[in-house]
Design goal:
single chain, mainly alpha, about 85% helix
Length: about 150
Amino acid sequence: MEDNIRNARYNAYVESKMAKTKPWPTLFRAFWVGGLICILGEVIKDCSIMWFGVDETSAGTWELIVLIVLAAFLTGIGVFDKIGAYAGAGTIVPITGFSNSIASPAIEFKREGVIFGLMAKMFIIAGPVIVSGVCASILVGLIHYIL
């Protein structure tokens, strides 16, 4: 009984300290910033086709490479965190969020050394996502092969 009272008081305390967000402005910001990132990706893809004569598949690869490097660079100079605080999921959902989830721990733990800091902690956030994706793709591939 005492645990329930303590838990209720703790939950009330946490609720009072949590930042209150307004859903519609937050959704709007996520939508337009995420859309802007996607438009930037399409511009990169179209420019690589028009200016460099790259085929459609290779242009898509270049689009992803540029977006990943740009997001990692912006994370490194501290700009991506500000954009993420403003736009929320608008920066997380595109591939830029994946790049940020790898670059942030690498920057945070670099002072612990190359092996135990950078290499050990780089995939601390993105690692479970990568493992889940690989396992799911193997499972779907096996199902497809059997059927």
